[in-house]
Amino acid sequence: MKLFVKYKHDYKKIVVDVQDVHKTYQETKVPVKALQGVSIQIEQGEFTAIVGPSGSGKTTLLNIIGGLDRPTEGRIYVDGTELSTLNDNQLIDFRKTHIGFVFQSYNLIPVLTAKENVEFVMLLQNVSKDKRDARTQELMEAVGLGDRLHNRPAELSGGQQQRVAVARALAPKPAFVLADEPTANLDSASTANLLDIMARLNREENMTFVFSTHDQRVIDRARRVITIEDGKVLSDLRR
After folding, report:
1. Mind listing the pLDDT tens digit for each residue in 141-159?
2. At what angle do helices 158-170 and 188-205 cross, to 10 degrees?
């Protein structure tokens, strides 16, 4: 596969390559075709929104890109690795080092402090304590929560919990970050704050973000908008 493409007289690394992906769910009497021949490439440093109505297939696509689900047909390459070649344990290890996840429900571990939540994946990676501490402090400062390291999720607002989730996603320095409806439970001020943080990390650190969203505020910030309907790519616009 091609790992680089020429774009505006420069070469951009392809971090995600989706090739003719189909996904059919057989749990019901009538099979559900969630994805039908989807092909897209995501380049390093993109700030991309995948949009579409409920049931369009956008969350399914995000889950398949993230290795949380497997396609019925087609291939997915992430950072040059074909995900279908990995068994379940290898896929878990791959996700830990290459993909950051931000979910609308935050998915923080309630008994752990914000600091412990952020450093959890690094702990699984056997990163030394000094490096974990430094990385966690850096990220918590970046998301404006340097003074909340020792608070548990229940002691934080929804917007603060989502910012902790962003810091956790970035902790292992992934190839890219997948954010599934990250602003769904946030008010306008928290949404603006979160998007400012992500946009700054994208701009200053060339971090790649891919959103699945209904939120017009996210769509307005995206520099690329991929619209999916009935499991197919309807449009793919850069701006």
Report:
1. 888 899 999 999 999 998 8
2. 20
The packing angle between helices 129-142 and 158-170, to 10°, is: 130
Q: Tokens 């020429």: give the residue.
A: 6
Q: What is the 3-state secondary structure (H, E, C) of 23-71?
A: EEECCCCCCEEEEEEEEEEEECCCEEEEECCCCCCHHHHHHHHCCCCCC
Task: For residue 204, give its domain range.
Answer: 4-238
Number of domains in the chain: 1
CA distances from 148 to 136, 137, 158 (A): 12, 10, 14
User: pLDDT digits over 194-219, tens only?
Assistant: 899 889 888 888 889 999 998 999 99
CATH, residue 234? 3.40.50.300
Cα 75 to Cα 91: distance, rounded to the nearest angstrom: 14
Q: How far apart are CA 139 and CA 82, in angstroms?
A: 30
